[in-house]
Every structure is written in C-alpha cells, then in structure tokens.
Amino acid sequence: MEPDDRIDPDTNEPENDIETEEKECRPKKKLPWKMIAIMAAVAAVILFAFLWEIFYDGDVYIGGNRGSGRPHGDNAPPADRSDVQNSLDALDWVEREFLPVNEFSRPGILLGEINGVVIHYVGNPGTTAMQNRNYFANLAITGQTYASSNFIICLDGLVIQCVPVDEIAYASNTRNADTLSIELCHPDETGEFTPETYESAVRLTAWLCGQYGLSSDDVIRHYDVTEKICPKFFVENEEAWEAFKNDVAEAMNEEIDSAGDFWRK
C-alpha cells in the first residue's frame, strides 16, 4: 500500500482520495427550483397588488387622456374631494348633474395641478345643457367616442357640472390632464352665445381662475390646443375672444363673497 493510501476505519478499505475531495468541495444543498419559482410568483403578486393600490385605486394621478380610474358609484363624486369642489357644492348658481363613472366620458382619473380653463362650444345649435350632458352620459352605453366636459352652460345661463373639478374630462385633447373645460350652448350656426350664456361663462371662468390662482391669460380656446374651430364664434371673431378674456379679468377684480356671488356696486 502506498504511503498516501488511507484505511477507512468503518470499511477497512482504502479510502478514495478523489471521492473524499469531491465530498469536501461539494456545495451546500440549494433550494429546489420549484420552490424558487413559487417564491418568485408570490413576490410578483405582492408587488402587483401594491402598484395597483397606488396607481389605480389610490389617490395618485396617473395622467394621460384615456384610461379607467377608481369607480365611485353612479352620479357620485370621488370620496376624497378637493376643496374647490366642496366650494362649488355651496354655489346656488351651479347645478351638479355628475355623469356616471365610465370609460368613455368620466373615467374617474384624478387631476393633478390645474393650469388653465378651456372654452368650447357644443356645436349643436339650439340644444340645451342637459341634452348635451345626457349625450355624454349615454356614451357609457354606446361607447361611440370619448367626450365630456366639466361644465356646460345653457342658453338661459344655467350652469351644469358634469364632472368634478378634481377629475379629468375628455374635452381638450392633450390638455385634458391639466385644465378644466367649459362647453357653451349656442342658438344658431354662427356659434354666437346668448347674453345669458356669455355672462355665466364670464362668471364661472372668473370664479375658477380665482380658486386656482390663474389669470385671464390662462383661459384658452379649444382652438388654441388643436386648431379645431371651437368655440366657433371666438375663433372667427378674435376681438370677441379678447373682449371675453377682458371681461373675465374685470370680473376677477371684483370682490367675491363666501358663496361665490359677485358684489355689485
């Protein structure tokens, strides 16, 4: 027997040096691959649930022009409502007729910072604010298009709110994410507004600008976003548009009481 040979005391046989070295160098047992796969799947589910809670069901604004948000129940505003919406609820010259939460006209996505107010016209001569509001609501059934507005002002000056001011409305394309929208009814194809509609538009726009720290320079037309001829009368008559903005600026300089009414001298 060679000097390097060793006797195994248990078997009384020569010890195999190679086998011994393999045993000494053999790594510790690893977890079975099935166990690793299960643990990875569990971790993925937990991460998905966490992200879902934050970005879909939580009060975090995602942005964009489309997408479903947290459902709040038919005709009900979000549970966590903005201070401005609470102030709007106290105004007796604004009627709240919220659309049902749905993919096509009220996705329930929360707005971030408000940087402007966009003026539109309904494009349907002679229709009322409620008729246009009901058209938006019916999109939840027809799925015909994506359209809505935060406010619609009727031919007689009635203001109807369709979407809370802390939620996106589908009205202003790339500016949906940081503006509020006001649709104005008009009696004929010219798109010119009645005095009642005009006065309510000035009043509401000035009130919103005051609430969000905006100026009349932050009031824009749909045309200024996409070059669509909307609102038609203000696009085709630039002086009328400038007059409207001046009237908004003047109204903002007037005192507003706690109910949102202007003190008239």
Summarize the SSE layout with pairings.
Layout: H1 17-25, H2 33-55, H3 83-89, E1 94-96, E2 116-121, H4 129-142, E3 151-153, E4 159-161, E5 179-184, H5 195-212, E6 219-221, H6 223-226, H7 232-236, H8 238-253
Parallel strand pairs: 1-4, 2-5, 2-6, 3-5
Antiparallel strand pairs: 3-4
Helix pairs in contact: 5-8
Helix/strand class: alpha/beta
Rg (C-alpha, Å): 32 Å
Anisotropy-based shape: elongated
Question: Structurally, how many domains make up the residues?
Answer: 1
CATH homologous superfamily grouping? Peptidoglycan recognition protein-like
Account of the protein in words:
The chain has 265 residues and is α/β, with parallel strands linked by helices. The chain has one domain (16-265): Lysozyme-like, CATH 3.40.80.10. Helices cover 36% and strands 9% of the residues. It contains 8 helices and 6 strands. It has helices spanning 17-25, 33-55, 83-89, 129-142, 195-212, 223-226, 232-236, 238-253; strands spanning 94-96, 116-121, 151-153, 159-161, 179-184, 219-221. The protein has a 6-stranded mixed beta sheet, sandwiched between helices. Helix 5 (195-212) packs across helix 8 (238-253). The longest helix has 23 residues, at 33-55. It starts with 16 loop residues before the first helix and ends in a 12-residue tail after the last helix. Residues 1-7, 15-25 and 52-80 have low confidence and may be disordered.
